[in-house]
Amino acid sequence: MPLAPVLARIDADLDLSINRLLELLRIPSISTDPTYKDDCQKAADWLVKDLNSLGAIASKRETPGHPMVIGQIIPPGYEKKPHILFYGHYDVQPVDPLELWNRDPFDPVVEVTEKGKVIRGRGSSDDKGQLMTFVEACRAWKSVHGELPCRITFFFEGEEESGSPSLIPFMKENKDEITADIALICDTSLFDSRVPSITTMLRGLLGEEITIKGPDKDLHSGMYGGASINPVRVLARILASLHDENGRITVPDFYNGVPKLPANIKKQWEALNFDHHAFLKGVDLNTLAGERGYTALEMLWSQPTCEINGIQGGYTGDGFKTVLPSIATAKISFRLVGQQDPFEIRENLRGMIENMLPPDCSASFKHHGASGGIAMSTDAAEFEAARKALSDEWPDEAAFIGCGGSIPIAGLFQGIIGLDPILIGFGKDDDQLHSPNEKYDVESFHKGTRSWARVLNNLSQN
Amino acid sequence: MPLAPVLARIDADLDLSINRLLELLRIPSISTDPTYKDDCQKAADWLVKDLNSLGAIASKRETPGHPMVIGQIIPPGYEKKPHILFYGHYDVQPVDPLELWNRDPFDPVVEVTEKGKVIRGRGSSDDKGQLMTFVEACRAWKSVHGELPCRITFFFEGEEESGSPSLIPFMKENKDEITADIALICDTSLFDSRVPSITTMLRGLLGEEITIKGPDKDLHSGMYGGASINPVRVLARILASLHDENGRITVPDFYNGVPKLPANIKKQWEALNFDHHAFLKGVDLNTLAGERGYTALEMLWSQPTCEINGIQGGYTGDGFKTVLPSIATAKISFRLVGQQDPFEIRENLRGMIENMLPPDCSASFKHHGASGGIAMSTDAAEFEAARKALSDEWPDEAAFIGCGGSIPIAGLFQGIIGLDPILIGFGKDDDQLHSPNEKYDVESFHKGTRSWARVLNNLSQN
After folding, report:
1. Does A313 sit within 8 Å of B322, measured CB to CB?
2. Residues B351 and B381 placed together within one structural domain of the fold
């Protein structure tokens, strides 16, 4: 089945495709706010109907929270064609502060801007617009050839923006149905407007809250200052010791399991010519502050970090209070890579802190989640096939990139259904995800749809 | 004029004296709360009337805030007798949380407790009860001998618990009237129930708020973590560097002007056999945490300190947020002694911090007050005379002691009227100053009154 007419159909039907997306965007499916519970149902119903319209057997699956949508297109005789699982989410972020929006977030529109046409509205990029690129690609295949080039299972979630409480039980209970040969996820961004990407490395996350306790109550710093231990001072000493003078993290055995970046990936990243000055300039910074000896992309994607996310102790209101605090607390997090073991690191961190405590101080710890880093086996043929498809669509060659953050669904695909998901997305840095005036470039939507048509084509030829 | 009958009169009239104090305690003169403005006037009126009753020429002096009370007893022919200025304050602290009081804070009573009789009520110790010990001593002298042994100026303030906004202008405008040969202040405590004391060293206070700024907004620690500077980490490093491994403060030239403790004072302090284990045990601590090589009393009274009073940065609510904060703030204070110059220290601190800033970080500072340490010239004869008087009244010899905190009026006496005030008081550690169920031991009141009778006697013989 030739690809060219499928791409032509996508071009011809672009306005119709956008209109379908606008319909979906009009449903305010904010998952975290119970006010919008019925709207989440409506969005799921809309998707079921839309999948049915392109020949899928689709249904809404209730969960204790918002429903999942599962759809399948598995024509008879397709047993030997690859079975592809596609994941996206139909729920969206809340819209506050509403006054910062230039229009009703749920009255989406195509706007002409200086940088080109954009689809403006909550969820346009995250993730309804991205999800629909894949659906529209499938529709074009069906429309031109009457069939898809492969077997497809659609898997849409409605709780991604509210912590995915139903996701793991649902995936475990419906493991057979969602098991496939290849998994695709569309919830990431382009590297830049010329360079498409497949995200193949994601950092894990370990969150710890440390509370140092000294005296049994806040003391008067005149009466006790100089003789009594100050837990903020102890905490400052601990936090200051977490990095050495080169920015290297000092938790014992922390770097166990940190892999050397493969030469081919390192080369690809260098070829991206990432402008870290521009990246930092965007937040009023100039200087790379990570461990010496690494490039910016390595610091962000392939090296682990230790960050203090919050600290509090003593009097923090207006003015001054000469208090000697009883406790001090910090929230710290580690981004982890490769085979770093979050639980081992947690124990080593706790031990290191206990060892630094002076007399009269105790430390208590609260755990805030642990997940290891994720790296896909990019040697698998489907990764290269997908990369080739993207490179054919966009001006520059596609890159395997890393992601400083974590995308939990990626780990679940590995853990529950045993697949390294291929993370492809067409978002841009200025899409205003989770913020007022979210948008999705019409180019992202159009070329994204064309990209998926190409990816389905390439993956079906393996 | 013999002392013995004066002491006998104090003993005989104790109940009458207590009743007068209870009358004053019934007036809720909370200076910080405008609701009680009229009550502050009433308390001042009560004192004017009471001073008149013992032959003083007394009057209420309006200020922009609550009134002062000035009273004088300067009989004809007394030009050569010493002129003594006495300071106390009639305003009291607020009473919240009211539910923690065992009785109405302004319905005072003499209670019999396991430890002896106490006068319970707001202001009983701080400072109405203390103030009245001096008034009652004068009354006994007048009553027995028809005259006092010296010239007296009473100076009562009504804004001590609300920052004394009118004090400096009033003292400057009425300098001639309040100028005297000797100044007495009654707003401090006994060293312990056997050992009376004269507080001759007070630490000064320098308060600084430091804000470290990194990126121009809070960042996502996944997107930026590892490449961007984290101001909490920078602040932790700065705070951790303020003390060396021996607890010595590292601000450049910080110890300039810290005097060596005079041998006689050191000896007196050693003789106090201060039980620092019991002191620390009271707040669930065991180990002295100050600079090595000093005793507990030196750490508390004669050595400077640097304490972190508060710290805040990033996300400090429940749970976890993977934010890389834009700013971090700490409030720190220094207790100063001897000739340490608070403004020089402030500049050196700021310079030290500026020097520690990595690229992309800026520091801003907010000043929260500066006062130097105070030390009285205890060589002056009146100090020894007063100490002797106290030693005669109490079981053990009186000591010249230090005070970890600051008493601003003491500095004003030095600065405005050129006198080293003699700080004598009879409060106890368990008086619950500023707290619910404030009390003053009847013994403090009784022996306090007798002490002042003796002090007046001794000071008049110089």
Report:
1. no
2. no
Could you read off the pLDDT of A162-217 as tens digits, one per residue?
Answer: 889 999 999 999 999 999 999 999 999 999 999 999 999 999 999 999 999 999 98
pLDDT digits (tens, 9 = 90+) for A5-43: 999 999 999 999 999 999 999 999 999 999 999 999 999
- Are B158 and B44 spatial neighbours (Cβ–Cβ below 8 Å)? yes
Residues A187 and A246 occupy one common structural domain: no
Mean pLDDT of chain A: 95
pLDDT at B251 over 90: yes
pLDDT at A294 over 90: yes
Same-domain status, A242 and A213: yes
pLDDT score, position B214? 96
Handedness of CA B444, B450, B453, B456 (dihedral sign): negative
Give the pLDDT confidence of B423-438 residue by residue, as tens digits. Answer: 999 999 899 988 899 9
Written as six digits, the tokens of B387 are: 């100490």
Distance of CA B241 to the CA centre of its chain: 31
Nearest CB among A215, A280, A312 relative to B284 is that of: A215
Taking one residue from A and the other from B, the number of pairs with CB-CB distance under 8 angstroms is 276
CA torsion B30-B31-B37-B40 (nearest 10°) is 80
Closest CA to A289 of B350, B243, B219: B219
* Residues of chain B neighbouring A215 (CB-CB closer than 8 A): 283-285
Is residue A156 located within the same domain as residue A187?
Answer: yes
From B323, B341, B369, the end of a domain falls on B369
d(CA B187, CA B126): 7
pLDDT band at B250 (very low <50, low <70, confident <90, very high): very high
Looking at the structure, tell me whether residues B171 and B234 fall in a common domain: no
The ipTM is 0.86
Which range of residues forms the domain containing residue B409?
A: 4-202+373-460
> Running DSSP on this structure, what letter comes out for residue B259?
P
pLDDT over threshold 80, residue A462: no
Secondary structure element (H or E) that encloses residue B208, with its range: strand B204-213
Tokens of A267: 């080369």
Specify if B284 maps to a domain: no
Dist CA B231 CA B211 (whole Å): 9
Would you say residue B285 lies in a domain? no
pLDDT at B462: 55
Q: How many domains does chain B have?
A: 2
Question: How would you write B94-162 as a 3-class SS string?
Answer: CCCCHHHCCCCCCCCEEEEECCEEEEECCCCCCCHHHHHHHHHHHHHHHHHHCCCCCEEEEEEECCHHH
Instruction: Indicate if A84 and A159 belong to the same structural domain.
Output: yes
Percent of residues, chain A, with pLDDT higher than 70 = 100
Cβ contact, residue pair A309, B325, below 8 Å: yes
CA distance B173 to B179: 11
Nearest Cα neighbor of A195 from A390, A393, A398 is A398
The domain boundary, picked from A371, A398, A418, lies at A371
Within a domain: residue B102?
yes
What is the phi-psi region of residue A137: left when phi exceeds 0, alpha when psi lies from -120 to 50, beta otherwise?
alpha
The interface residues of chain B toward chain A in range 309-328, judged by CB-CB distance below 8 A, are 309-316, 319-325, 328
Q: What is the mean pLDDT of residues B381-405?
A: 96
Query: In sequence order, which residues have a C-beta less than 8 Å from that of residue A273 and are 6 or more positions away?
Result: none
- The answer to whether residues B172 and B252 belong to one domain is no
pLDDT tier at B321 (50, 70, 90 boundaries)?
confident
Q: Is some CB atom of chain A closer than 8 A to the CB atom of B246?
A: no
CATH code of the domain in which B100 resides? 3.40.630.10
A99: closest CA of chain B, how far (Å): 20
Peptide bond into A33 cis (omega under 30): no
Rg (CA), chain B: 25
Quote the pTM value. Answer: 0.86
